[in-house]
Amino acid sequence: MIAPEAKPNTPEPPKPDAARIAHLEELVHRAKMAAAIFTQFTQEEVDRIVKAVTLAGLQNAQRLARLAIEETGLGVMEDKVIKNMVATEFAYNFVKDKRTVGIIREYPERNLSEIAEPIGVLFSLTPITNPTSTVLFKCIMALKTRNAVVFAPHPKAWNCCSEAIKTMYEAAVEAGAPEHCLLCLDSPSLIDNAYLMSHKDVGLIDATGGPGVVKAAYSSGKPALGVGAGNTPVYFEKSADIGAAVVDILISKTFDNGTICASEQTLVIDDEVFDNVLSKFAQLGAHICNQEETTLLERTVIDPKTGFMQPLAVGQKAIDIARFAGIRVQPATKLLIAEIHGVGREYPLSVEKLFPVLAVYRAKSVNEALRVCVDVNHAGGLGHTAVIFSRNDEVIQRFGNAINAGRVIVNSPGAIGALGAVYNDLVPTFSFGCGTGGGNSTTDNVNIYHYLNIKRLARRTQNHMWFRVPNQIYFNMNAVDNLRQFPSQSTVIVTNPILDRVGHLNIVRRHIYPKAHVHVLVIPDAEPDVKVIAKGVEALNFQKADQIVALGGGSVIDAAKIMKLKYESPDADLQELAAPFLDLRKRVVEYPTEKLNRARLIAIPTTSGTGSEVTPFAVLIDKDRGCKVTLADYSLTPDVAIVDPQFVMSMPKALTADTGIDCLTHALEAAVSNYASPYTDSNAMQAIRLAFKYLPIVYEDPQNEEARCMMHNAACIAAMAFSNASVGVNHALAHAFGARFGVAHGRANALMLPHVIAYNAAVPAKFMPSPYTEGYVAHKKYATIADLLGLGGHTIDEKVARLIAAVEQLLDRLEVPQSVADLGIAKDEYERALPDLIRVAFDDPSWRSNPRMPLMGELIDLYRKAYEGRGAAAKDVVTKELQAV
Amino acid sequence: MVSVSIINLEERCMVLGLDAARERLESNGAETVLDFSLVRRLDSRSLAALREFTFRVGEKQGKVTLRGLNVEVYKALKLARLTETFSFID
Q: How far apart are CA A706 and CA A101, in angstroms?
């Protein structure tokens, strides 16, 4: 970049006259037609064209280099030849196997394909410093990506660039490229440039040049690729290989007389090696300026008014610059080195110098060196390039972290290193993206992928699902016998006082592994609180338990799950683990996997409803904070479940009904859940069948052993379904309502259930996004359930209506109240509670898997229907429209 | 009764085909159908000829339908802003 070119306050140039506009319009039109034709080309055709133009560029490398030297007077002939060859051969080597037509990349594991779309017409501005090489490079990039280009070369490099474009164009057309795919303005004009930069048919401005050009490109309102100014800091750390590093810097800083903007500008050298390094430079042809010479040099090469380099010095030889400055040097001098003592306007040589003059700074420590490098980086070189010579990986890493540069070149020449593909694996380029630090949109080495619109074809992914249940489940009468097969030295039984009194505890005790020491922990028959958990963990630690047997209903088993969690992972933060989540696999918190202790958890349920013996859920009450903490993770799932109906034979009728309805609700909600799968469906359907058949029997004949056994199994099977498919809006409503009015969970579910079935079977006001389901199927699932139960009906809505009627009949047989009103809750009290109920229900994670996304107004309707009572639900079945879904 | 001229275009002699279409358009102003079924792609000359043809259609206020275009050719016409003049059928 040549800083003096910058004219940030230049007023907007006038528009071209009518004749000129017609000319420019025709130029863009031709490019546009060429781009349109180009879209039909295949990869093979494109590759043939790219190979042809590359060969043309290589064959003309020397001729074009000579033209560039003659016209610009900058740089070194031999180096310009090399640049032209790098711009063609290395660029070709990078692009030759890359796909730029059709599908360019595929990610089968992500069901994702990337497809190339050409941009169309590019308007490309090229610099004076690397004129023909930049043109050659951009022609290859544009043709490889099926774009047409209108070039505007730097005014002082117009002829050589025009010739380079002509050379490439003729080779391209000869190889089959569309006519007018590469065009050049016939004369330099800022007015023309401004017109084209805002032309509606120009898709992208690609500006390589001074800050003025880049700023104009970015200000045009068009998508633009512009490169920023450089000011490359170099840290010469004391562990570096001095001989190799000095040669690398000489190669780079003298290459084409320092015109590559990534070349070294200020060398920060550790004090310990400073003298050696300068001595080596002197030995290899550098002139080390004294103080007086440094002052002369500053006055000659830096404009005191702007603080930027003088154009007259750009791309000139060291001996010529010395002569301009009045410094006597040896004829073979390659580089002028001047010491500076700081960075900024008062140290003129600390800026970018695109000629063979290098500033050096003596640093007393690594910290000082890094600080000075950061200063240089911020003095006009943000986002561009930085270089470090060191054999200390830690220092290299610190440098990389500290410096804001798109390219941090390690132990190699900055200029050629930044160009890529020679000293490293950077993408070859002649256009350095400098990120936001340099006012650019990218830090990349600009390449073919910046000349493409990359489209992503995102196929629907089939998310992995799961079915996770305890390792072992023992069921049917006397299944508790299996307990004795689990070896243990110390077993803690967690239970509640009632089960001790009715003798269940003794039964379990008798079946525990004979050699185990058994300790009994009796906890209150209520949802556990944190104090209960703490006491339990204390007991587990004291007993050094290797086995926990939870004997009880959902509360006891939940308590045992949490005790085990805290026993095995004492640092687990229950509040944090209870953080809300939408998708179990993407949740923010992670349950502990490192365990201090290990204990087997065996769950023996004494009710037939919650299914806690197989679920990954646990609820506790935090009385101090006044809230419920719901934990959900498969690591909470008990290791063994023993589903033995002898422990439920004496369940009271009301509890039998409430827990039985809970079981049925689990199964019905899991069946229509968005997370339902064939695995959960089989469990849900079986549980529904068992509940419909055996729940009325066991309610009316509590001692019916077969019915008890089947309902006990049904609860466990339903729990396996909802452990993996989750529940739905019924549970969200019931949780909020039950907590507010002190209604048992199963009963609260029962009051909502018919209304929720009707609600889910209707056309949703809002569909729930779900990658797991295709189409809306809740109504069909309900119809399938009706068929399973033999309820009859011909259409889906008939079957749904019959299912609702069957649920209502079942609730009637179980003597469940008809409505919320029947519970004795006054209507005005209920209405006053509705806003709170809605808020709590909506926060409840249960509905996240509901097939229909509940709107808050809909939740109010459901609560009101529950207040009115059964009978209203069947009337609401409006599935007709859904038949076609 | 409206007469419809159907001109089958071929990739190798698109320009000739369009010349014929222009003549018919100028002689009787009848509705013209250009059949692109055999045209896999357009080259620069074809596109220029088609552009020229669109000007004639505009002048004559003729009705021209393009039939059987593949989407690649259609997209090239779209990018060249030549789709407004025509109607399209498969």
A: 69
Q: Is the pLDDT of residue A586 over 90?
A: no
The answer to whether domain A472-646 has CATH 3.30.420.40 is: no
CA A708/CA A649 separation, integer angstroms:
7
User: Which of the four CATH numbers 3.30.565.10, 3.30.750.24, 1.20.1250.20, 3.20.20.80 does domain B4-89 have?
Assistant: 3.30.750.24
Contact flag B77-A40 (C-beta cutoff 8 Å): no
Total CB pairs under 8 A between chain A and B = 36
Q: Residue A682: what pLDDT?
A: 98
DSSP assignments along chain B, one per residue: ---EEEEEEEGGGHHHHHHHHHHHHHHH--EEEEEEEE-----HHHHHHHHHHHHHHHHHT--EEEES--HHHHHHHHHTT-STT-EEE-
Say yes or no: do domains A232-425 and A472-646 share a fold: no
Q: What is residue A3's predicted lDDT score, i.e. its pLDDT?
A: 42
Q: What is the pTM of this model?
A: 0.83
pLDDT tens-digit series, residues A772-799: 888 899 999 999 999 999 999 999 999 9
- Of residues A301 and B90, more confidence is placed in A301
Which SS3 state, helix, strand or coil, does residue A49 take? helix
Neighboring chain A residues of B75 at a CB cutoff of 8 Å: 36, 39-40
Whether A268 has a pLDDT exceeding 80, the answer reads yes
Q: A779, exposed or middle or buried, with CB in 10 Å at 0-12, 13-18, 19+? A: buried
User: Hunting for tokens 């019931």 — which residue is that?
Assistant: A734
Region B33-53 average pLDDT: 92
Of A33, A179, A180, the CB nearest to B80: A33
CB A226 within 8 A of CB A446: no
In this structure, are residues B49 and B20 in contact, taking their beta carbons and an 8 Å threshold? Answer: no
φ and ψ at residue A444, rounded to 5 degrees: -70, 160
A835-867 burial, b for 16+ CB within 10 Å, e for fewer? Answer: eebbebbeebbbbbbbbbbbeeebbbebbbbbb
- Distance CA(A133)–CA(A415), nearest Å, equals 14
Whether A34 sits inside 8 A of B44 (CB atoms) is: yes
Beta-ladder partners of A389? A236
CATH number, domain A652-884, options 1.10.1520.10, 1.20.1090.10, 3.30.160.140, 3.30.70.20:
1.20.1090.10
Report the alpha-carbon distance of residue A4 to residue A2 in Å, rounded: 6
Q: Which of chain B's residues have a Cβ under 8 Å away from the Cβ of A120? A: 79
Residue closest to A214 by CA, chosen among A464, A446, A50: A446
pLDDT tens for A471-495 read 999 999 999 999 999 999 999 999 9
pLDDT in tens, A149-190: 999 999 999 999 999 999 999 999 999 999 999 999 999 899
Would you give the DSSP letter of residue A572?
-
Sequence ranges of the domains in chain A: 41-226, 232-425, 472-646, 652-884
- A41-226 carries CATH number 3.90.1150.10: no
State the Rg of chain B over Cα.
Answer: 12
CATH superfamily of A232-425: Aldehyde Dehydrogenase; Chain A, domain 2 (3.40.309.10)
Shortest Cα distance from A338 to chain B (angstroms)? 56
Cα–Cα distance measured from residue A605 to residue A610, given in angstroms and rounded to the nearest whole number: 9
Domain ranges across chain B: 4-89
User: Regarding beta strands A627-632 and A617-622, do their DSSP bridges make them parallel or antiparallel, or are they unpaired?
Assistant: antiparallel
pLDDT at A98 > cutoff 50: yes
Active site residues of A: 261
Dihedral sign from CA coordinates of A304, A308, A310, A313: positive
- Please tell me the predicted confidence (pLDDT) of residue A64: 98
Distance CA A390, CA A411 (A): 7
User: Is A34 at the interface with chain B, CB within 8 A?
Assistant: yes
pLDDT beyond 50 at A1: no
